[in-house]
Each structure stands twice: as structure tokens, then as C-alpha cells.
Write a structure and sequence with these properties.
Layout: E1 16-17, E2 20-21, H1 38-47, H2 81-87, H3 90-97, H4 110-117, E3 128-132, H5 135-154, H6 162-168, E4 179-184, E5 216-217, H7 230-253, E6 257-263, E7 266-267, H8 268-271, E8 273-274, H9 277-289, E9 293-297, E10 325-328, E11 335-339, H10 359-375, H11 377-398, E12 403-409, E13 412-417, H12 420-432, E14 438-440, E15 444-447, H13 455-470
Parallel strand pairs: 4-5, 4-6, 6-9, 9-10
Antiparallel strand pairs: 1-2, 3-11, 7-8, 10-11, 12-13, 13-15, 14-15
Helix pairs in contact: 2-10, 3-10, 4-10, 7-9, 11-13
Pfam families: Aminotran_3
Catalytic activity: 4-aminobutanoate + 2-oxoglutarate = succinate semialdehyde + L-glutamate
Cofactor: pyridoxal 5'-phosphate
């Protein structure tokens, strides 16, 4: 994420001609102050009495941000001209000004939007989709839908009876069943009360919050380069799969049936930890064996940046049968999840809220999908990803005492520093040199560029990183 900071340091300087945003981004970062600069400090002081500012790094002038300057979870960068044009349309404006309650009163063109923005890029084998506002709400409701399906199967494919309806109001069985979700050590699925029980990447979001007694399984921790440690890594897969099955049997024996298993293709927040296709196929086999809903959390990995040629990282796995659910958000702009036909719920108000998403985000995603197809961005990402991985490994080779474990899929990547302190200093220094980047896990630097990230941006990225690391 390349930064171009103004003298007052809002954050980014782009190009504007009158009221029209220019169609080209800056040629490179141009820093005038350290981050945060005086203007950001002033705005933080102004905001602090009104709102928590502990996580704010700097304020950004989004009207002057363009392309990869600055960029994080957006698929086409900032102020992409096609999206700017689309946002000026009457359909977008009426969706924005008169936000429809999609749960009960959707727009007349809502089904068209679902088809063009989501169904046309759905994971293989999944066409049913439920929109939500964000990734957390997507995971939360996917888990709820898995529970509902599980209990319906236990009742012989029948809806809740009166005893279940009455007892749930007292939070008693059978209406309030003892069910669990299996998650993984190092996982991140959101910060809501339910999702914190399957989130185990860092302590600060979880501390002081009550949690469900749900099983925690091991996730592979590979050694790199993968080809050098094949035997060790294969054993990691076997040990972790054995642990998954053991945890399922343990919780089922406690009469807390494991109704769902939720897993990320890459444990992104936890430190960019990977599993092999064999590991994930093993999970699919176990979930089939035990009649468990298999949920793949692609909130961070979805959107086309992992070099699969489609929008989904789990396409790398070549599963024998598709996941039961795939959740999404971030680069997909809207939150939501795809699900298998057998999981469909026909009763009203069971998976529901007033908004169930935002039609403006769906409208923009329609345009994003058109641009991705028109400009061949998924194929370009594969080629750009090869160059990115090449330069990432070259950077590691240039600094062997400071860097290790270069890894990734296309431009979705990470590398480890020798210590957490070194990584954290790099984050500060690189930002002040014009590269806004982030950490994950104990001591990893992560990369999450958009689909408009090109060779020239790779060269800038690694030029800044190399210069910064030399001075650590």
C-alpha cells in the first residue's frame, strides 16, 4: 500500500482537475512528514473526546486518494474511474439516499444485482447466497444457519415443535441445544460475541468476554521452503487432522455436538499460516464423515488476489466436493456467504435483519466484476503474483539474518522478521518512507495489494522495503 503524504499529512495526494478525479495515480510516494503528521494529530485530538482513537494511525483524504495510493481492502484501489462513474448513476444515488430494508422490502433490481455481483462469480458448486453487512456478520449468520440445519436433521427434517419454541424462550433444551463449532488455534473470524469463540489469533479482542466451550484444533505450522521440509510438513497435516477428529469425538461424547467446522484458507490475522490441499481435503473428508457443516471463511482471502484464476483461494484445494458454506467480505465489498442447496432455510426471520447488507456495495461490486472480466485482472494477478513472489524471495535472500519464511499465493503474501521488535520498527519506518504496510501474527509482515497492483508497484514496494530493512 503506497502512500503519498501531503505537507499537512492528511495522508494522500492524488490528482484532481476541477471536479473530475484524474485517471492516473501518482508515479510514486512523496513523504513530507512522519506519520502521523501535524494535521492527523490535530484531527485525532479533535475526535478523541467523542470517539475512541486508540487504533487510528492517520487520517486520509479519500478525495485525493487514487489507485494504490492508499490501498487496503479495496479490490480496484481508490477512486477507480469506472466506480466513480457508476456511483453517479440514479440507481446508486437512490440506493444511498433511500436505503432499502433488504430483509423485507428489497429493490426491484435486487435479484439482478445478486446475479451479476455474486452468483456469476460464486464458488464452484454453490449458487445460493445470503448478503450481510460485513465479514463478522457473515460468519455469525453462517454459523447460525449451520446450527438450524443440524437441529432440523436431528428432528427428522421437521421444523421446531411447540416444546422447542417454548423452551428456547427460557434458554432451556430442547429449544436451546448444546452445540459447538470447531475452530483452529491462530484463527480469526471476527469480533462479535459468537465469533470470538472461534477467534484465537490474539488475546486483546477476547479478554474479559464470555466464550462458548467450543473445541480448538491444531492448524499446520509448516517449515519453509516447503520442498525442503516435505516430510515434516506432511506430518503436520496428519497430526492436525488427527487432532480435529479427536476433538470432534470428545465434544460429541460430552453431548455438545460439533455442528460446524470453520476454517480460513490462510490464517491471515494469526500470522499468514497455510494449509496444504491435502490438509483441507482431509477436513472435507472428516466433515462429511461426521455430518458437520464445512464453513470456509474467505473474508480476507476472497476477491481474486491468491492466483487461482477465480475469486476464491479454496479453489487451490481441488476438493472432491465443495464446502457447504463460503463466507466473504473485504475485497468483495459486501459481506455475505454462499451455501449449498441442502442448507436453505424456508422459514422467515430465522436469518434476518433490517438491512442484510447494503445495496450500494452490491451495486459497486457489479461494476467491480465487470472491470475484472473486461481487464482480465484475475489472470494478470497470476502473472503479477509470480513477479511478487520472486522479489519477495530475493528480498529474503538479501537479508538472511533479518528475514525468513517468505510465503504466499500470488500477491497475498507474508514474510517473517527475526523479532517482533524488528518487524514493528519496520512498519513505522516503511510508512515514513512511503510504504504503508501491516503486520500479522507474532512477527510477520503481510501484503494485501489490490487487483490493479502492477509490476511498477512491485518495484516500488521492494525498493522501499530494501532501503528500510538496511537501516533497521
Amino acid at each position: 500500500m503506497l502512500s503519498r503524504l501531503s505537507p499537512k499529512n492528511y495522508a494522500v495526494v492524488g490528482c484532481r482537475f476541477g471536479s473530475t478525479i484524474a485517471s492516473s495515480e501518482p508515479t510514486g510516494p512523496e513523504m513530507h512528514t512522519a506519520v502521523p503528521g501535524p494535521k492527523s494529530k490535530e484531527l485525532t485530538d479533535r475526535m478523541s473526546p467523542l470517539h475512541n482513537t486508540a487504533s487510528i494511525r492517520c487520517f486520509v483524504d479519500f478525495e485525493k486518494s487514487f489507485g494504490n495510493y492508499m490501498i487496503s481492502s479495496l479490490p480496484l484501489g481508490y477512486n477507480h474511474p469506472d466506480l466513480v462513474k457508476a456511483a453517479a448513476s440514479p440507481k446508486f444515488l437512490t440506493s444511498l439516499v433511500s436505503r432499502p430494508a433488504l430483509g423485507s422490502f428489497p429493490r426491484t433490481d435486487f435479484s439482478e444485482g445478486l446475479q451479476e455481483a455474486l452468483t456469476d462469480v460464486a464458488p464452484k458448486g454453490l449458487k445460493q447466497v445470503q448478503t450481510m453487512l460485513c465479514g463478522t456478520s457473515a460468519n455469525e449468520n453462517a454459523i447460525k444457519q449451520a446450527f438450524i440445519w443440524h437441529m432440523r436433521q436431528k428432528r427428522g427434517d421437521k421444523p421446531p415443535d411447540q416444546l422447542a419454541l417454548d423452551s428456547c424462550m427460557k434458554q432451556q433444551q430442547p429449544g436451546t441445544p448444546h452445540l459447538s463449532v470447531l475452530g483452529f488455534d491462530g484463527a480469526f473470524h471476527g469480533r462479535s460475541l459468537c465469533n470470538l469463540s472461534v477467534t484465537r489469533s490474539k488475546a486483546i479482542p477476547k479478554v474479559d468476554i464470555p466464550a462458548f466451550d467450543w473445541p480448538i484444533a491444531k492448524f499446520p505450522r509448516y517449515k519453509y521452503p516447503l520442498e525442503k521440509y516435505k516430510s515434516y510438513n506432511d506430518q503436520q497435516d496428519k497430526d492436525c487432522l488427527a487432532d480435529v477428529e479427536a476433538k470432534i469425538l470428545e465434544w460429541n461424547a460430552k453431548k455438545h455436538d460439533v455442528a460446524a467446522l470453520i476454517v480460513e484458507p490462510i490464517q491471515a490475522e494469526g500470522g499468514d499460516f497455510y494449509g496444504s490441499p491435502a490438509f483441507f481435503q482431509g477436513l472435507r473428508d472428516i466433515t462429511k464423515k461426521h455430518n458437520i457443516v464445512f464453513i470456509v471463511d474467505e473474508v480476507q482471502t476472497g476477491g481474486g488476489a491468491t492466483g487461482t484464476g477465480d475469486m476464491w483461494a479454496h479453489s487451490h484445494w481441488n476438493l472432491s466436493t465443495p464446502p457447504d458454506m463460503v463466507t466473504f467480505s473485504k475485497k468483495m465489498l459486501t459481506g455475505g456467504y454462499f451455501y449449498a442447496d441442502h442448507l436453505r432455510i424456508n422459514e422467515s426471520y430465522r436469518i434476518y435483519n433490517t438491512w442484510v447488507g447494503d445495496p450500494t456495495k452490491l451495486f459497486l461490486l457489479q461494476e467491480v466484476v465487470k472491470v475484472i472480466k473486461r481487464d482480465g485482472l484475475l489472470q494478470k494477478n497470476i502473472e503479477v503474483g509470480k513477479e511478487f513472489q520472486k522479489q519477495l524471495h530475493q528480498l529474503q535472500n538479501s537479508h538472511p539474518n533479518k528475514l525468513s519464511n517468505a510465503r504466499g499465493l500470488a500477491t497475498f503474501a507474508a514474510i517473517d522478521f527475526a523479532t517482533a521488535e524488528m518487524r514493528d520498527k519496520l512498519l513505522t519506518d516503511a510508512t515514513n518512507n512511503g510504504l504503508h504496510c501491516g503486520g500479522c501474527g507474532p512477527q510477520s509482515l503481510r501484503f494485501r495489494p489490490s487487483l490493479v497492483y502492477e509490476k511498477k508497484h512491485i518495484d516500488l514496494t521492494f525498493e522501499i522495503l530494501d532501503k528500510t530493512i538496511k537501516n533497521l
